[in-house]
Amino acid sequence: MIYQLESQRPLVDIERELHESAARNKFGVIAVHDLQQTMRNKGVELAMECRIFEVCNPHQAKRVLESDGAISTALPCRISIYGSPGRYTLATMLPVEMMKAFDNPAIAPVAQEVQEVLIRMMQDAAG
Q1: CATH number for the 2-126 domain, one of 1.10.10.10, 3.30.930.10, 3.30.310.70, 2.160.20.10?
Q2: Which residues pair with 83 in a beta bridge?
Q3: Predicted pLDDT of residue 116
Q4: Are 93 and 54 in contact, with CB atoms under 8 Å apart?
Q5: Where does the pLDDT of residue 25 fall: very low under 50, low under 70, confident under 90, or very high at 90 and above?
Q6: What whole-number distance in Å separates Cα of residue 51 and Cα of residue 82?
Q7: Under a CB-based contact definition with an 8 Å cutoff, are residues 119 and 4 in contact?
Q8: How many CB atoms lie within 10 A of CB 110?
Q9: Three-state SS string across the chain, please?
């Protein structure tokens, strides 16, 4: 259900390549959440760095949302990068598996297309 891979690249390089790969694959980066900083702002220290990228292809999102509005609970797709210098993990929930929860076979092809792109983007970013 979760796809993960490791990278020894610096975090700034992973983030830059993830943005570039998203654009090449016609996905937008909607937001990037820096959980370490957010928690620090709340008085909680998190030792590892953790960024969550919210990514979306609006055409793919429209297709699944028109099929079932409840799918909005699973959008946008997220790619997490966490770890520390020298060893980061990139991870995402696999769309094909997540969409099974909606019991709608019509969305399976879209989930497969999105999943392939997410994996490609992560591989690009990891190096």
Answers
A1: 3.30.310.70
A2: 49, 88
A3: 98
A4: no
A5: very high
A6: 6
A7: no
A8: 21
A9: CEEEEEECCCHHHHHHHHHHHHHHCCCEEEEEEEHHHHHHHCCCCCCCEEEEEEEECHHHHHHHHHHCHHHHHHCCEEEEEEEECCEEEEEEECHHHHHHHHCCHHHHHHHHHHHHHHHHHHHHHHC
